[in-house]
Task: inverse folding
């Protein structure tokens, strides 16, 4: 299908091609701009709704606090009433007239305060005063001191406690209310005389923010500190709302867009620090979206008009486009594939002809630059390999001469002779008549000679074990890749251990690769040191020159096909892993 479309497009005239191309660009432009504009407008809408919701919640908070503060003040006034103080203190005990007067004052308060539905007063001797706009309730518990909140109210020493439905002391309720509870103290001695409970029906609490509720078409839920509803649940899924409140715990204000009944709703959370309550609100986007629709339509018309203008411009420009552009584009496509063909253009002074001539010059310079770069890279690789060899050979030589000098001082002449013999064999193998490639068996001979020298130097400080696949011995490899790793295991690992150590050299032929593992049980190394070695940090004293040089040589010779890694743990040991490509009876 794609080939058919491309073939049809290729056979169109240039004017039609440009027209079709700009039609596609215009379509993409319209879609992209429309999506971008929609995203920006939705972001603006979200911020506007969020700001409205936040202001609304703060207004509701203020109204609720106003209602509760007023009730608080009335409860204080009732508690400080002189006749009530005397009666609760026992001074006016059995004085019927005084009790009637107190009840009359309570009824007047209830009538004066429309936000209060009932008032209950309990003294320490089981006596109570009660007025209720429905019916006086009876305690469902033995006495007021049995209420779960009783001790907490006493500890507040006159400050109020807010609970739902008086904490259930009147049994099951058909109408929900918020109870303002405080202890009545003797004004002279400040000793507790009783408890006063003033109840605010939920209908009156809702009425405090009804106007705001109606104006913005909000759904409101008031939760206590345990995320239980303080007023009737107005949401279809209260569990989800409470989970939302839990997720917003610890924040003053939080809002998020949720999808409900295929409509976008902004769910907002506000914490009322004074009582540790929370207000949850849900506000729909519909009303504010309508305000944006007119602006959206106008913007789309402008975008479409602009695209049409661009299309007519493309038709005009296409009249001046001719064959040289085709030739130039064709050659440029070849350059992408690595083919540098010059283009043949007619003589002329137009910008397209000049562009074609500059293109031919550029092609020539690029070809020359590629040739030079390849030659430079080849020379650089050869030089770096030679430098690394020259660095590694003296490195091993210094250590070997040091060991021979130690034996000479000990008058072990035969061992000195044997050590020199081993050293000679090492250089005969390592030089390999100038070749960088030797068999794996020859590489092992170098390692064994080095181990022999180190055993003369360090005695039985370590043992070496071999676990080799016989097929590996005849494989060719880059020389001097094992000896620096073994040297690192002895000098930096086992030597500092303070007791006999073990080195294991393993070699396996797996899936076209030679897998080498050199493992020791020395002191190990830190992750910082490992990172220095693997990242070629030559400035760090902690990075081992032998390991770093070996890995660098492997990088230069095998490139990305070679893999190596170091696994080590302090006090446990170190394991060096090499994975070298192997093809057709040799090394890649």
Result:
């Amino acid at each position: 299908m794609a080939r058919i479309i491309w073939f049809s497009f290729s056979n169109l005239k240039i004017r039609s091609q440009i027209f079709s191309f700009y039609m596609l660009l215009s379509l993409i432009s319209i879609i992209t701009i429309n999506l971008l504009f929609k995203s920006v407008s939705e972001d603006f809408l979200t911020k506007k709704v969020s700001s409205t919701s936040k202001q609304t919640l703060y207004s509701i908070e203020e109204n609720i606090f106003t209602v509760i503060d007023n009730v608080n003040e009335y409860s204080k006034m009732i508690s400080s009433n002189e006749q009530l103080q005397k009666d609760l203190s026992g001074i006016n005990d059995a004085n019927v007239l005084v009790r009637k007067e107190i009840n009359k004052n309570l009824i007047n308060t209830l009538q004066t305060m429309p936000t209060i539905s009932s008032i209950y007063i309990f003294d320490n001797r089981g006596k109570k005063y009660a007025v209720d706009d429905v019916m006086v309730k009876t305690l469902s518990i033995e006495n007021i001191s049995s209420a779960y909140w009783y001790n907490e109210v006493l500890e507040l020493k006159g400050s109020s406690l807010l609970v739902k439905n008086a904490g259930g002391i009147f049994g099951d309720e058909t109408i929900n209310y918020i109870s303002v509870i405080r202890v009545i103290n003797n004004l002279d001695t400040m000793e507790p005389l009783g408890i006063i409970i003033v109840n605010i029906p939920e209908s009156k609490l809702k009425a405090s923010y009804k106007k705001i509720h109606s104006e913005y078409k909000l759904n409101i839920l008031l939760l206590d500190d345990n995320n239980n509803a303080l007023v009737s649940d107005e949401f279809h899924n209260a569990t989800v709302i409470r989970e939302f409140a839990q997720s917003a715990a610890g924040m003053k204000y939080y809002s998020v867009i949720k999808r409900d009944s295929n409509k976008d709703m902004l769910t907002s959370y506000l914490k009322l620090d004074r009582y540790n309550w929370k207000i949850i609100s849900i506000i729909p986007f519909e009303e504010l979206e309508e305000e944006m629709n007119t602006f959206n339509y106008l913007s789309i018309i402008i975008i479409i008009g602009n695209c049409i203008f661009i299309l007519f411009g493309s038709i005009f420009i296409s009249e001046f486009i001719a064959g040289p552009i085709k030739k130039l584009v064709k050659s440029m496509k070849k350059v992408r594939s690595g083919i540098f063909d010059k283009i043949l253009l007619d003589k002329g002074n137009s910008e397209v002809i000049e562009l074609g001539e500059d293109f031919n010059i550029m092609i020539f310079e690029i070809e020359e630059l590629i040739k030079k770069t390849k030659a430079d890279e080849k020379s650089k690789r050869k030089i770096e390999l030679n430098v690394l060899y020259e660095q590694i050979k003296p490195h091993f030589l210094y250590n070997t001469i040091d060991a021979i000098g130690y034996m000479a001082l000990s008058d072990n002449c035969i061992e000195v002779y044997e050590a020199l013999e081993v050293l000679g064999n090492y250089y005969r193998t390592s030089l390999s008549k100038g070749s960088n490639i030797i068999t794996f068996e020859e590489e092992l001979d170098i390692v064994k000679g080095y181990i022999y020298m180190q055993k003369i130097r360090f005695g039985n400080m370590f043992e070496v074990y071999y676990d080799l696949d016989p097929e590996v011995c005849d494989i060719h490899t880059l020389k001097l890749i094992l000896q620096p790793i073994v040297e690192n295991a002895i000098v930096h690992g086992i030597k500092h251990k303070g007791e006999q150590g073990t080195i294991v050299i393993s070699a396996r032929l797996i899936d076209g690769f030679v897998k080498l593992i050199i493992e020791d049980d020395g002191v190990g190394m830190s992750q910082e040191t490992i990172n220095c070695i693997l990242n070629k940090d030559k400035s760090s004293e902690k990075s081992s020159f032998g390991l770093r040089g070996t890995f660098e040589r492997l990088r230069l010779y095998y490139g990305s096909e070679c893999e190596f890694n170091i696994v080590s743990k302090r006090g446990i040991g170190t394991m060096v892993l090499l994975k070298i490509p192997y093809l057709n009876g040799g090394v890649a």
Summary: Residues 80-205 form a domain with the Beta-Lactamase fold (CATH 3.30.450.20). The two ends are 43 Å apart (CA to CA). The chain has a mean pLDDT of 77.
